[in-house]
Write a structure and sequence with these properties.
Length: about 375
């Protein structure tokens, strides 16, 4: 059989194997075909992307070192083209950084070469079982509140996020607390895993900054329990014992990021800002799904008024609206129709859906219309 052709197993999952080493590619293809999978080969990033555009695949197995395109870029493009396609990274150049980046981009597993046939088959089986049942990954990227009612006030309050810092090194913990407090966050310290779990159970937190080497409980176990009890809590791992395997495990458990010590103040603040933004975006997406309900209509009315108030008072904001359009409204719970009405100054739509406006709000809309005429 031609090595580039799929096996004939009926109704089997379709796998695209992107691997430039022919012996590795053919060995993996044979092992997976024996399990009943249809396996297609791509030796370059370009050929992999061409195949993904032409047909549906359940799984992309992606090497990161390719002769033409960086494998990480292929993963990003593949997820944009076929977001439902699962991704497993296979690489002979495994690093903590690439493992975290790949998992952030949507990979559900990351395997370092050399691996055994059993290891790869076990990973593929688990991933494809998840695909078959449409079970979402644990990744913090799309975490919502697990059925909890999401309110607009809560989204606003998350701009001043509450952080639980689980760190047993007192000097580091106090230093991080000071840095984050200066950035406007409320920080509570937990020197042990048990303390952290007790605090999470009693109080609500937006972010858990978690060391994984603790004096009592393994940090990974703490993360697992927190994600099970409070799936909307974003987790950032901080560790002085960074390894590829622990990075992959943490990301599989739903961590948003994984930082190896020593890190800079800017690195941890950037990670926290990203986690807060991700949490807000997840809450906004949940609210956008409710805009057809009475509650949703009230929320959107309030949001439109907030935008109009801000635009009438903040010159930088209305200039951003004029120049960037709906991009300037990303942080607001608004339908596409509402964004278009605000950007274009559609007074009829706004009055119909929002009601009477203030003089300042009307003044801004009329000014916006005059700009369009000009």
């Amino acid at each position: 059989m031609n090595a580039s052709q799929p096996s004939k197993a009926p109704a089997s999952s379709r796998i695209l194997l992107m691997e430039d080493e022919p012996t590795v590619a053919q060995g993996l293809q044979i092992a997976l075909q024996e399990e009943g999978y249809d396996v297609y080969l791509a030796q370059t990033g370009k050929s992999a992307l061409d195949k993904i555009r032409q047909g549906d695949f359940d799984l992309l197995m992606a090497d990161l070192r390719l002769p033409d395109i960086d494998g990480m870029d292929v993963i990003k493009q593949a997820k944009r083209i076929r977001p439902e396609t699962a991704v497993i990274v296979i690489t002979g150049y495994a690093t903590v950084q690439s493992a975290v980046e790949a998992m952030k981009e949507g990979a559900v597993d990351y395997l370092a070469k050399p691996f055994t046939d059993d290891e790869i088959i076990d990973s593929v089986r688990k991933v494809l079982e998840r695909v078959a049942t449409k079970k979402p990954p644990a990744s913090g990227k799309d975490a919502t509140s697990g059925g909890e009612d999401i309110k607009l006030d809560r989204i606003e309050s998350e701009k001043h996020a509450h952080i639980l810092l689980m760190e047993d090194e007192l000097s580091l913990a106090n230093g991080l607390k000071m840095v984050l407090a200066e950035a406007g966050y409320e920080v509570v310290l937990a020197p042990t895993g048990k303390t952290a779990l007790d605090i999470v159970t009693r109080n609500g937190f937006d972010i858990l900054l978690a060391d994984i080497k603790l004096p009592d409980i393994d940090g990974m176990e703490v993360i697992k329990q927190v994600r099970e009890k409070k799936p909307d809590v974003q987790v950032i791992v901080i560790t002085g014992y960074a390894t590829v395997s622990s990075a992959v495990e943490a990301m599989k458990l739903g961590a948003f990021d994984y930082l190896a010590k020593p890190f800079t103040d800017e690195e941890v603040k950037t990670a926290v800002e990203g986690a807060v933004r991700q949490k807000q975006e997840a809450a906004i997406r949940a609210l956008l799904g409710k805009l057809d309900t009475q509650e949703g209509k009230l929320i959107q009315k309030r949001e439109v008024l907030r935008v109009l108030d801000r635009a009438s008072q903040d010159e930088r904001f209305w200039r951003a609206l004029s120049e960037s359009g709906s991009e300037a409204l990303k942080g607001y719970v608004l339908s596409t129709e509402a964004k278009a009405a605000i950007v274009s100054g559609d007074l009829n739509w706004i009055v119909e859906h929002v009601g009477e406006l203030s003089d300042e709000q009307l003044k801004w809309i009329f000014g916006r219309l005059q700009m369009e005429r000009w």
